[in-house]
Amino acid sequence: MGLFSKDIKTMGDLLLHGLKDIYYAEHQIASSLPAMIDKATNRDLTKGLQDHLIETRKQIERLDQVFKKLGHEPRGVDCPAIDGLIKEANELAAEVEDKEVLDVAIVGSAQAIEHYEIARYGTLIAWAEELGHDDIVRFLTTNLNEEKAANTKLNTVAMRKGVNRKAAS
Question: What would the pLDDT profile of 103-160 be if each residue is shown by its tens digit?
Fold first, then answer.
C-alpha cells in the first residue's frame, strides 16, 4: 500500500490483490504441508495430505496462468490470515503428545486452511465473473473444486476412517 495513496482503486485492482493473496497462500501451504505429512501417523491422513500437496502445486500453476491471462507477473502479497492459520497449526501440533490426538489436530488445522481457501476462491470467482474475466473463472473454479474435495476427504478421514474415534477412546 502507498504511504499517501491507496493502491486499490477499482474492482479490478481488488481482484488482482485477491489473486496475489491466494497465490501467496498457496505457496505457504505448499511449504508447510511436508511438515504436516511428517507428523501425521494415520496412513489415510498422510496419503490425503500428500495428494493435496500435489494438487496445491498444480493450483499454483493454474494461478500462474491466471496472472498471465490478466497480463501480470505472478506474485504474492503477504497474507496474515494464512500465516496465522499455519502458525496456529504448528503451535497446536507442538502441544499434542498423543499421536492419535495429533492426527485429529492435523485434520482440524488442515480443514481451517481449506475453509480459508474455499472462501477466497469463491470470492475471486464472483469478482472475476462480475468483471467479465470468463477466461480465468475456469482456472479458479478448478482450484475451488479441489479445495472442496480436499475438505471432504479430511471429513472422511476424521469420521469414516476413524481418526476421531481412535483419539477419543
Answer: 999 999 999 999 999 999 999 999 999 999 999 999 999 999 999 999 999 999 988 7
DSSP letter, residue 1: -
Q: Which helix (H) or strand (E) holds 129?
A: helix 99-130
Sequence-distant (≥ 6) Cβ neighbours of residue 118 within 8 angstroms: 144, 147, 148, 151
d(CA 91, CA 95): 7
The pLDDT-based confidence of 6 (bands split at 50, 70, 90) is: confident
Residue pair 82/112 in contact by the 8 Å Cβ criterion: no
Range of the domain at 142: 11-168
Residue 49 has pLDDT above 60, yes or no: yes
Q: Are 79 and 21 in contact (CB under 8 A)?
A: yes
Q: Fill in the DSSP letter of residue 132.
A: T
CATH number, domain of 22, equals 1.20.1260.10
- Residue 114 is inside which H or E element, if any? helix 99-130
Q: Does the model's pTM come out above 0.90?
A: yes
DSSP conformation class of 40: -
Q: How many domains does the chain have?
A: 1
